[in-house]
Design brief:
The protein contains five helices and three strands; from the N terminus they run ααβββααα. By secondary structure, the protein is an alpha+beta fold.
């Protein structure tokens, strides 16, 4: 969490690249490995870690958003 909240520190590009290279998502659970440590979380756990609500996230992810159009999707993201 400190990597995300300390703006002076920033985040490690190498560790982020390793996370992405090893990342997989199965039935809403993200798994990866960084520096030999296994990481596993789902939307509720990520919400808990970040201190944000995650209610409804699973529904949002599975909704068909193509009706919004490319410009609106970019604006929302």
């Amino acid at each position: 969490m400190e990597l995300f909240t300390n703006t002076q520190l920033g985040c490690s590009i190498l560790e982020l690249a390793e996370f992405c290279a090893n990342c997989s998502v199965t039935k809403g659970v993200v798994t990866s490995e960084v520096g030999g440590k296994k990481i596993r979380f789902d939307a509720p756990k990520l919400g808990e870690i970040l201190g944000v609500p995650s209610t409804g996230f699973d529904v949002y992810v599975h909704e068909d958003k193509t009706v919004l159009g490319q410009a609106r999707l970019l604006e929302l993201s």
